[in-house]
Amino acid sequence: xxxxxxxxxxxxxxxxxxxxxxxxxxxxxxxxxxxxxxxxxxxxxxxxxxxxxxxxxxxxxxxxxxxxxxxxxxxxxxxxxxxxxxxxxxxxxx
Amino acid sequence: xxxxxxxxxxxxxxxxxxxxxxxxxxxxxxxxxxxxxxxxxxxxxxxxxxxxxxxxxxxxxxxxxxxxxxxxxxxxxxxxxxxxxxxxxxxxxxxxxxxxxxxxxxxxxxxxxxxxxxxxxxxxxxxxxxxxxxxxxxxxxxxxxxxxxxxxxxxxxxxxxxxxxxxxxxxxxxxxxxxxxxxxxxxxxxxxxxxxxxxxxxxxxxxxxxxxxxxxxxxxxxxxxxxxxxxxxxxxxxxxxxxxxxxxxxxxxxxxxxxxxxxxxxxxxxxxxxxxxxxxxxxxxxxxxxxxxxxxxxxxxxxxxxxxxxxxxxxxx
Lengths: 94, 317
Fold this sequence. Notes:
The complex is a heterodimer of chains A (94) and B (317). Chain A is α+β, with helices and mostly antiparallel strands. Chain A is 18% helix and 22% strand. Chain A has one domain: Roll (Ubiquitin-like (UB roll)), CATH 3.10.20.520. Chain A starts with 6 loop residues before the first strand and ends in a 23-residue tail after the last helix. In chain B, helix 6 (121-139) packs antiparallel against helix 7 and helix 6 (121-139) runs parallel beside helix 8. At the A-B interface, strand 2 and helix 1 of A face helix 4, helix 5, helix 7 and helix 13 of B.
């Protein structure tokens, strides 16, 4: 549609020590307004201590059609996990 | 794509849902799944937005500052819920503008409960108690629905909704503990909102055309009649605490089933309101369109401001 107001993705850090997490999106003309709107829409009950907004068009996403080639190779690399290695029971905490 | 390929994709898709896996926006989905979700999520969003109107009617006349801040916060929540849902719906490829257009043209529906008037302050109590009560019953199962963005939006909505019901019930409680006239006001509000609240949970299972498919896609986890029974069972004892009488002479505890039996719903009225002939259909849509059109200058100003800021930045760079 013509003149649609840009879409932004909103990420909130709920408290220090935790990562920012995607919580939804909203429309706003610029970054400052997006931030203000995000505050009103997504943090009405102290859900956050920090907000990131990024215009949705700047996000590059992987294609679900390629999920197999991207993620399946990891499945047969069990040697990347600690349980792959056999150790005697006497060795504790390793 | 050949028909066989599509059939194969559909089978994988159904298996995924059956295994309680979520569907995310970029995943392949049958066209019917997309369309049904656009219809339901946008309708849900519209209900939140139109739902602000009957309550907004009483913000300036709330009987105390305490009631006023609570009602303001509730109406603001409805706006927020509408926005969560619109953005969830947009991930299915429909634009926000298109959704607004469909609401304003009457093509898209919203919950018919909002086509009843709020005549007295007690209606604000009854809406919180009954309408939000019924909405919660409807919405809690949706937190587990198959479409990821919808389920996530519903988790947020449900977290916020219980305050709405409690503030409504508290209003009813104050009125019922007040003067005879105030208690009468509460009873009158219950009399008017009871049946529309039961209708709000949707047509009977026998008349509901979407139920079977929606159950399969986990857009529904319980049928309309099951949800309605749950609502009645939960609400009758709450009315007893208030000392109010539910306007249904056939309402009776059934020892055998362990549920309340209740009277026949006037489905003619329901369909009349759905078709646009309720007491407030015209007014609600008019108010909504006015709000959108009269707010156009704000959107234009925001666009102009953002452009100006941008120009300034690129000049100074």
